[in-house]
Amino acid sequence: MTERPSHRLFAAVYDTATRPLERRLDRHRAYLARGLEGDVLELGAGTGAMLPYLAETDATVHAVEPDPHMRKRARSRAERLGVALELRSDLAESLSYDEDSFAAVISSLVFCTVDDPADALDEVARVLRSGGELRFLEHIGDDGVTRRVQEVATPVWRHCAGGCNLDRDTVERFDNHPSFETVETERVERLPLTPFVRGRLERV
Ligand SMILES: C[S@@+](CC[C@H](N)C(=O)[O-])C[C@H]1O[C@@H](n2cnc3c(N)ncnc32)[C@H](O)[C@@H]1O
């Protein structure tokens, strides 16, 4: 069953804990936002790390964030930036938007955490217009020894990191979904236990 996340402490330390990583993710977040216009949905907006980038676009920004502690921070950041954020508490697995609602969907570090990534991707396909893009920045499962370490570490890591899984085969899931064509996928960063990928999928 899909549970609604609520991680007060994780939300409180998130921005401080991720600051060193954010320096490396800056250009990838810019990639996600590049040239966006029209109605754009961000999945799992967290504390609003994408908002400074989305604020520079012509997009009308919608976001879902089911964790109330994260949502509060995202709302404050949107106010500080002057972004008219339309923020809902939906889970990515059950979006409350009509089909064909969005020109693009953004996901950064979310498919590692959603309870049911298959349902979440189906929902993205449903709300995206034909020709629209899912743009993603995600960390993924590796292979070889690192994969085995990821599998062993994930149960503990999930507790410390708001439900995050280290060992998800997210790129394979994206590549194999019948409603999407992969435009590009690139490995862009690496932390000791996890590679990062960014890319774009087009809704066919
Ligand atoms: C690692 S954080 C990433 C936050 C933000 N996207 C970023 O780039 O900093 C993962 C986020 O996904 C949210 N989340 C967890 N389960 C979710 C779900 N089923 N649907 C949508 N968001 C979810 C969490 O509450 C959290 O804010």
Q: What does this entry look like structurally?
A:
- By secondary structure, the protein is α/β, with parallel strands linked by helices.
- It has helices at residues 8-17, 19-33, 51-54, 68-81, 117-127, 144-160, 170-175; strands at residues 37-43, 58-64, 86-88, 102-108, 128-139, 180-191, 194-203.
- The chain has a single domain (8-203), classed as Vaccinia Virus protein VP39 (Rossmann fold, 3-Layer(aba) Sandwich), CATH 3.40.50.
- It has a seven-stranded mixed beta sheet with strand order 3-2-1-4-5-7-6.
- It starts with 7 loop residues before the first helix and ends with a strand.
- S-adenosylmethionine is lined by residues 5, 43-46, 49, 64-67, 70, 91-93, 108-110, 113-115, 162, 164.
Produce a short descriptive summary.
By secondary structure, this protein is α/β, with parallel strands linked by helices. Helix content is 38%, strand content 28%.
Query: What is the third-level CATH name, the topology?
Result: Rossmann fold
- What number of structural domains do the residues give? 1
Q: Order the strands across the largest sheet as they lie in space.
A: 3-2-1-4-5-7-6
Average pLDDT figure: 97
CATH homologous superfamily designation: Vaccinia Virus protein VP39
**How many beta-strand segments?**
7
Which compounds are bound in this model?
S-adenosylmethionine
Identify the CATH class. Answer: Alpha Beta
Produce the secondary structure layout:
Blueprint: H1 8-17, H2 19-33, E1 37-43, H3 51-54, E2 58-64, H4 68-81, E3 86-88, E4 102-108, H5 117-127, E5 128-139, H6 144-160, H7 170-175, E6 180-191, E7 194-203
Parallel strand pairs: 1-2, 1-4, 2-3, 4-5
Antiparallel strand pairs: 5-7, 6-7
The structure holds S-adenosylmethionine.
